Amino acid sequence: MSAIKGVVVGHGSLAAALIDAVQRIAGADTGLVAVSNTDCDRGSLEEKILAAVGDGPAVVFIDMPSGSCLFAAMRRLEGKSGTRVVTGVNLAMLLEFVFNRDGDVNEVAEHMVQVGIRAVAAR
């Protein structure tokens, strides 16, 4: 089974910044691709997301649980076999992903949601 690709979609330079942080911690081969909504209308953002996902299994991490990035991803990826969308991306979630991106895409996506939830706390 091939490793699952991670596509991080966000506003401005957030996706690239998150991937840069992951690479600084985990090393260069993260399997992550950044997509920014900067200067995109809905159609061009959809095309960028679709191109980043490609043909293999992928988890698409979106910065917010609503908004243009999520709408673009869901419009083109909903029902696409082997692809799941996870919202509320954070650094802990992406670090877990780069070390655990083999297996069933549905199980990996659900695991990333749990990791992301555990990373948020008030202390």
Average pLDDT, all residues: 95
Spatial separation of the terminal alpha carbons = 40 Å
Shape: globular
- With strands numbered from the N-terminus, the spatial order across the biggest sheet is 2-1-3-4
Class by helix and strand content? alpha/beta
Low-confidence stretches: none
The helix/strand series, from N terminus to C terminus, equals EHEHEHEHH
Please outline the major beta sheet: 4 strands, parallel
Number of strands: 4
Total helical segments: 5
Strand content: 15-25%
Oligomer: single chain
Gyration radius from CA atoms, angstroms: 13 Å
- Give the helix level as a range of percent: 40-55%
How would you describe this structure to a colleague?
This protein is of the alpha/beta class and 123 residues long. The chain has a four-stranded parallel beta sheet, sandwiched between helices. The chain has helices at residues 14-26, 42-53, 68-77, 91-99, 105-118, and strands spanning 5-10, 32-36, 58-62, 83-87.
Write the layout of secondary structure elements.
Blueprint: E1 5-10, H1 14-26, E2 32-36, H2 42-53, E3 58-62, H3 68-77, E4 83-87, H4 91-99, H5 105-118
Parallel strand pairs: 1-2, 1-3, 3-4
Keywords:
17% strand; 47% helix; single chain; 123 residues
Brief description of this entry?
The protein is α/β, with parallel strands linked by helices and 123 residues long. The protein has five helices and four strands.
